[in-house]
Design a protein that fits this description.
Elements lengths: L1 H19 L5 H23 L5 H27 L2 H8 L1 H14 L5 H33 L36
Helix pairs in contact: 2-3, 4-6, 5-6
């Protein structure tokens, strides 16, 4: 149940980041996140807090700085790209976490980790290919769009041949009168 709740919160935060990135700067979003997460974690931290040593403080500062840089890059990616194209690439961090676990802690990934990594890499490559294909198809459709009306659009209003300068329509023009 905790896993489902965590997945829900991750999806919610991703959606909120995408929405906020249309109106807010990346640093503003990071400030909102830092403030809200500090407030939410202060209550449970109060019950287990112990004084920090110099090494603890240095490690905490390093993790905070690297996390802020990572979040800044994530916010910029969601602002620049489509959510459906960026989100699968975000999951590649699990693959990198497995690599770092092997390099730093000599942890060998089990078969489930390897299967999960293969699924993540495969789905990311498929989505990247599909997005590229759809983008090319969309550009090709726009490039060959007909100038004249399609024959099936016979019911669509056609421009009048007796139009004059007095019939010009602009954004502030009143609607045309029936003749």
């Amino acid at each position: 149940m905790v896993g489902l709740f965590a997945a829900f919160l991750a999806a919610l935060s991703t959606t909120l980041i995408k929405r906020l990135s249309t109106t807010e700067a990346a640093l503003t979003i990071l400030a909102y996140f830092g403030l809200s997460s500090s407030i939410l974690t202060a209550i449970p931290a109060y019950f287990v807090w112990h004084p920090l040593t110099g090494d603890d403080f240095a490690q905490l500062a390093l993790v905070g700085a690297l996390g802020a840089v990572g979040q800044f890059c994530q916010v910029r990616a969601y602002a620049a790209g489509e959510l459906m194209a960026v989100a699968p690439i975000d999951y590649s961090r699990l693959v990198f976490a497995g690599i770092m676990g092997f390099l730093l802690f000599a942890e060998l990934p089990d078969r489930y980790t390897l299967v999960g990594a293969a699924i993540i890499v495969g789905s990311t490559l498929y989505i990247a290919y599909r997005e590229t294909y759809l983008s090319r198809t969309h550009r090709a459709v726009l490039a060959v769009r007909p100038i004249a009306a399609h024959p099936e659009d016979a019911d669509a209003p056609q421009p009048r041949s007796d139009a004059s300068a007095s019939d010009a329509v602009g954004p502030l023009s009143p609607p045309p009168l029936c003749r």
